[in-house]
Amino acid sequence: MSGTNVFINKTSNSYPVFNNASATTQIGNILANEIYGAADPHTFDYVNGTGIIFRNASGNRTNGFLRWSTSASQFPTQLFRYIHDFPLETLTVAGRSRAIFRARRQITLLRPNGTNGDVIPANTKISLAYSGNSTFAGETNMDAIAVSHWQNSSGTWVAVLSSGNFSHAFCPIGLNHGSGASSINLIGTL
Q1: How many angstroms from the chain centroid is the CA of residue 177?
Q2: Model pLDDT for residues 27-47, shown as the tens digit of each residue
Q3: pLDDT tens by residue, 60-117
Q4: Where along the chain do its domains lie?
Q5: 142: which residues sit within 8 A by CB, 6+ positions away?
């Protein structure tokens, strides 16, 4: 599975985003309570930064390098809070406890092969997918979190349309709409 995930900055600070790991040019900031996709610094040995996708000041999805310090000992754990820590609720779906979010608007899921999957209506509950004990995001689209099921109008949990040997699809978090808890595609307790 992927070494990427979707995070929220739960510090009260903003952190600079650069065009590359050499920190040549600052291209934006990750603000307090901002949501973004990133290579997961909890699973890799990053010293002072990681590649991300975020919404820049012009409102565009942009790749960058999030830098937090010049020392690994200054790793800000609250900068990298998984969004699965802030679900609307936690339910058992397909025999596993899962973080549940609600779709803010209609969402077209993406299959692992890059084609469109299910179209999830607004206000529908969505179950996140897990690899081991963690959720994960797309390797190409780090701002698309893996989902396993959605609840249809009769209350039945339906497995997402996937591809190949996979049992998940990806839900874009909606950086085209915003990067705050009140604007992304998923409603939780962010």
Answers
A1: 14
A2: 999 999 999 999 877 666 556
A3: 999 999 877 655 556 688 999 999 999 999 999 999 999 999 999 999 999 999 999 9
A4: 4-82, 83-187
A5: 4, 5, 6, 37, 38, 39, 51, 52, 53
Q: With left for phi above 0 and alpha for psi between -120 and 50, is residue 181 left, alpha or beta?
A: alpha
Is domain 4-82 classified as CATH 3.30.810? no
- Rounded Cα distance between 30 and 28, Å, is 7
Provide the CA 178 distance to its chain's centre, in angstroms: 13
Return d(Cα 27, Cα 20) in angstroms, integer.
10
C-alpha span between 159 and 81 (Å, rounded):
27
Distance (Å, whole) CA 106 – CA 174: 11
The model's pTM is 0.91
Nearest one of 9, 16, 37 to 143, comparing CA atoms? 37
Spatial neighbors of 91 by CB under 8 A, at least 6 apart, are 97, 98, 100, 127
Q: Mention every residue, 6+ apart, whose C-beta is less than 8 A from residue 100.
A: 87, 88, 89, 90, 91, 93, 125, 126, 127, 128
Please tell me whether residue 69 adopts helix, strand or coil conformation: coil
Residue 101 to residue 188: CA distance in whole angstroms: 5
